[in-house]
Amino acid sequence: WEFNSSPEPCFWRFKGTESSSVIHRHCRAMLQKSGSKVSDRVRLFLFDFDQTLSVVHVFKSLAGWPKQQDTSILPIPKPYASSEWGQVVRLDQLNKECFQEEGGFLSVAFGGPERIRQVRDMLEALKSQDSEMVICTKGLVGPVRLALDRLELLPFFSQIYGHIGDTYGAMPFDKEVAQEQKPELQAMLGERWQAQWSSKDHLASNLMRQRGLTADQVILVEDDPQEVRKAKAVCRTLLVKEARGLTPTQLEQLIRCSKGEVP
User: Fold this and answer.
1) What is the model's pLDDT at position 71?
2) Among positive and negative, which fits the CA dihedral 136, 258, 230, 54?
3) Residue 9: Cβ within 10 Å count
4) If you write DSSP's letter for every residue of 211-224 in order, what string do you get?
5) I need a labelling partner for 211 at 20 to 30 A (CA). Which of 15, 62, 97, 130 fits?
6) Cα angle vertex 236, ends 232, 241, to 5°?
């Protein structure tokens, strides 16, 4: 280690090749040991979509897979869709036709009106701290954007990264609606840049570098343990263990992260 005279939060610089996240955590530990106050707050939140913001797997529900019993899948009537445009059209249909007594397909997919309010309150709290929120999903951009738009959550997110087009192939319904012209729904479709990422940990690293943030100022919120393990070397992480959507306790934890109250 050598003393760093630059006006940075950490006054020591490591002479070696360790990752920035490891270096920053060394710096925090040294500051804590010296009695200095550490007040880093999370400024960038990367949210997974399915089973993290939602309580079920929206993509798989719309695609009708897997076929066996799976509590993460909402049982919906055929037809199924696997292309971006097909899922956007089918999601719009389902939200108007199914689960009307429960507030519609998306209300059920997000755990009902009360949980949607809790998620919105969390996002409002993060926004009030000038935090940035981004979606990173292995699903398709279009249906994710449509879902967030219909639930009035879309304005909270600066960007959505996912897959686009026919990444997951096309089913008969996808081909049937391929030529339909629905400008309002077509506006939900993703652009090429939104699919130009290789993995969530690499995306987190790139966004962190672009914004000049440290490892402790970025968090990946995710239900997949493998994604969390890979991202631990890059930034903070929060695992949604039950894969049934963020719980009230976890929503509160994220708010505390945005205020710098979680070490």
Assistant:
1) 79
2) negative
3) 15
4) HT--GGGEEEEES-
5) 15
6) 75
